[in-house]
Design goal:
Number of strands: 24
Helix content: 10-25%
Order of helices and strands: HEEEEEEEEEEEEEEEEEEEEHEEEEH
Strand content: 25-35%
Radius of gyration: 30 Å
Length: 315
């Protein structure tokens, strides 16, 4: 029990610190206070790295972090590469630099990295056909323009999508969702935020058979039931939109998750996290020893009866 309480306290502290960081940055911007900038390590269009650093190793088109990166933004301006965080962290504690930015590139894969900063952790702008996978972000991932990008197997507090035709699948989003683009496909995600999402246009909320887990599904649809043992609810989830962007959105847009999940999606196992179900009780096997004993007793009784019968016949 103590471990559970400690875990909940730790998660709450993380969410509070992330929210506080966003408020401080927004307040500074609103008051015209110049924010400090951290230096940038760039992966350039020709594949070179400037300034030269031991923090990134290169093997062909794969760039790998060799250690945690502190107080540097990494900016990727080269297409057709893989950036492998190798489990390391990019950490920025001051200013509003993105921890990791990708600008005007295509076919870039970002994987296995944690990014921590005060505002936008990963900024993908004017870029297409890029993939973010196995990424952890303590604040925001922001897609601006570009299209056909993929975010998968990742976790973030906030996701901001201002582009079209992206695939957002198998992620956990804890605080906020803003979708300003069209025809983005969302499936197998865990939407755990309490506030309503801001969605401007029509988007797609399932892959044709599986939708997403919404933390308030059972509250909004208390009569919903699981369809068989599929993990899918029998009532579609009609997505209510936050009114903060009412003047910008299409009033006729309809966003519906047709196959909402009853249970969260287990990203690591790539499966619905079904609860442990009680096994069906099997009929108890007939006690063989008892049957044999009873059979033997019956034979003995019959034998004694026959013996008495024949003795009486002789007399």
């Amino acid at each position: 029990m103590k471990k559970k309480v400690a875990g909940l306290f730790f998660v709450s502290a993380l969410l509070f610190s992330a929210a506080a960081g966003l408020l401080l940055v927004d307040s500074a911007k609103a008051n015209g206070i110049p924010l400090p900038k951290v230096p940038v390590i760039g992966i350039n269009g020709d594949g070179s790295i400037t300034p030269e650093t031991d923090l990134i190793s290169r093997n062909g088109n794969t760039y790998t972090l060799t250690a945690n990166v502190n107080e540097y933004e990494i900016s990727i301006g080269c297409s057709n590469i893989v950036f492998d965080g190798a489990g390391h962290t990019i950490n920025i504690t001051k200013g509003d630099n993105s921890g990791l930015s990708l600008g005007s590139v295509s076919n870039v894969t970002i994987k296995n990295v944690e990014v921590q900063s005060s505002y936008t952790n990963i900024h993908l702008y004017y870029s297409s056909n890029c993939t973010l996978t196995d990424v952890k972000a303590n604040n925001r991932i922001y897609l601006l323009e570009g299209d056909s990008n993929v975010i998968t197997k990742s976790s973030m507090n906030s996701l901001h999508v201002d582009s079209n035709d992206n695939s957002i699948s198998k992620n956990s989003i804890f605080v906020e969702l803003f979708v300003g683009g069209r025809n983005n496909i969302f499936s197998k995600n865990n939407f755990l935020f309490e506030d309503l999402p801001i969605i401007l246009y029509n988007n797609i909320w399932d892959d044709g058979s599986v939708g997403n887990y919404w933390g308030n599904y059972s509250t909004r649809y208390p009569d919903a039931r699981e369809i068989g043992n599929t993990g899918i609810g029998n009532m579609p989830y009609v997505i209510e939109r936050d009114t903060r962007a009412r003047g910008l959105w299409d009033p006729n847009a309809t966003n519906i998750d047709r196959y909402p999940l009853i249970y969260p999606y287990d990203i690591e196992k790539d499966a619905i996290a079904f609860p442990a179900r009680e096994p069906l009780s099997e009929p108890e096997p007939f006690p063989t020893a008892l049957a044999v004993g009873a059979s033997g007793a019956s034979i003995a009784i019959i034998g004694v009866g026959l013996l008495v019968y024949f003795k009486k016949r002789k007399h």
